[in-house]
Amino acid sequence: MRKTNWLSGITAVALVGALLAGCSGKKDNEPSASPTTSAPAATASASASAPAAGTPVDGGTLTISTFSDIVSINPIYVSDTASGDIQNLAFANLYDYDRNANVTVEPWSLAAELPKVSEDGKTYTVKLKSTAKWSDGQPVTADDLIYFINTVKNPDAGSPGISSFDKVDKVNKIDDQTVDIVLNQVYAPFLNVLVTGIVPQHVLKDVPLKDLQKNAYGIDPAKTVTNGPWKWTEWKQGQYITLEADPNYWGEKKPHIAKIIYKQYADQNTEVQAIIKGDTQMTEAIPVTQIDAVKKHENLNVILAPGPQYEYLNFNFKDENFPDKYSPFKGQKTRQAIAYALNRQGMVDKVLKGTGRLMNSPFLPGSWADPGDEAVNYNFDPEKAKQLLAEDGWKAGSDGILAKDGHKFSFELQYNAGNSRREQVAQVIQQNLKDVGIEVKPKAIDFSTWIDQNVTPGKFPALLLSWSLNNPDPDAESIFSSKYFPPNGQNGGWYKNEKLDALWVKGQQTVDKDERAAVYKEIGKEISIDLPYVFMYQYGLPQVVDGTTLHWAEEDKPESSLAYGYLFHVINWWSDKK
């Protein structure tokens, strides 16, 4: 599904994630971005291929740490990286990505071959493998794919993936393994959209769509029928998640690892201590400040390179999300002032230790959609910020805090608890904005609760999060278009710009890559002027693995440039731990 996810832990978004859903995100939860970027690669303590050793063995256990719990692993609703991790282990995708982000068919993919596309670009013929089965023994059929697409595109379901599938006019069943997906327009990103998990029609067909999101499916392991290499067997909320290899898994390639455990810790620093002590074998992201400490341990390998995620400061434009029923972010000059007031390069240098790269639009630096100098760059300039705030009508009160029309410029900045990087960045934002007369109140919230109650429904004043970009296509309509306010989209800040709304559609309907790039340059310029977000920086996730107990062949090593690349080809990995 074409989703951008909020990153749960990133290590800042994380964010994803993705910023996703995180980013969610997968939001670890979630638009653009070619996975091949020109961003400077961060140093790594060891090659990603270091854990390769010996011949694969079956039956081991892989223990992975996290500081964020899941929300739901139902593929219709996943929009954060914590949930996305488990979905990717328990569900097979229709199609998958190779290391270079090309859509492909793997032995573990549901599809039997790449889709056939009609000459007009509007019909995609998808053929499923006849051998694919659900964990309850039922076959995976065309009915499952049809149900999935029709559900996601239906506003009653409230799926974050609606913007990807509402371009589908109809899905025709050709036979039990074949469907024709007919679009109502040319939609250039659609091949990437088909890199998605699906759900069992025979399990969910009688659930009313308005009740589907809160249904036990995706929340209760005992009621969640899956079709991937591992079955979800246990969830102890706030503590751990367990998956076990499905003895009846249909794929010709079977998983070597018998059990995967996700252990939840209080924060990233605690995760680092756990892997140093040997309590875990892998953590998907540690604070960059901990890399040197980890590198002192010969058994631990750090994998760090720029990834498909960026962090952002999200403004909310809906008055009811503020205590005084007044959003202070509606003035364009006010938003630009905030961008000038933030020392983004200082954050990269001091918090990220130079491993990030500044961004001015939602397109990753060096990607084919990167607008480059067309996007406005906001240098750190507090005096310029003060000037713009004054021009927009803000005046200092007796306490030094700006006010306008009887409303004090004070807002709560939400971020996910346990994310050490984000905590530091929130403190920098607080001080930077205090220096220009704006009061910021940082608030850390449990990730899964935050995504469910604040981020997804768009009920927040402002937030610090990141997006994990789930596929390499630059389309970000679901995040920035006014067509996709919650619950039928991911524009949780309630941002509206009719010019951008039209440009996103133009980009989707343009097939020629160079012509599409020109559209995204125009988007980059407009969005960097109007600023629904302050785009902060691209960053990488420092993945740590215990190379003495966790192994893979060179061709199966993690791939930092991909969403969920830290689990790339995990079906082929093996573990010495029992």
Q: Can I get a quick summary?
A:
The protein has about 575 residues and is of the alpha+beta class. The chain has 15 helices and 25 strands.
Description:
By secondary structure, the protein is an alpha+beta fold. It has a domain at 308-538: Dipeptide-binding Protein, domain 3. It contains 15 helices and 25 strands. It has helices spanning 81-90, 142-152, 162-165, 190-193, 201-204, 268-277, 291-295, 332-341, 344-351, 382-391, 420-434, 447-455, 477-480, 498-509, 513-530, and strands at residues 4-6, 61-66, 96-97, 103-104, 116-117, 123-127, 168-175, 178-183, 230-236, 240-245, 259-264, 282-283, 300-303, 306-315, 357-358, 395-396, 402-404, 407-408, 410-416, 439-445, 462-469, 533-540, 543-546, 550-551, 574-575. The strands form six sheets. Strands 1, 14, 15, 19, 20, 21 and 22 form a seven-stranded mixed sheet that branches. Strands 9-10-11-2-12-23-13 form a seven-stranded mixed sheet, with helices on both faces. α14 packs antiparallel against α15. The longest helix is centred in the C-terminal third of the chain and has 18 residues, at 513-530. The radius of gyration is 23 Å and the shape is globular. Residues 6-48 have low confidence and may be disordered.
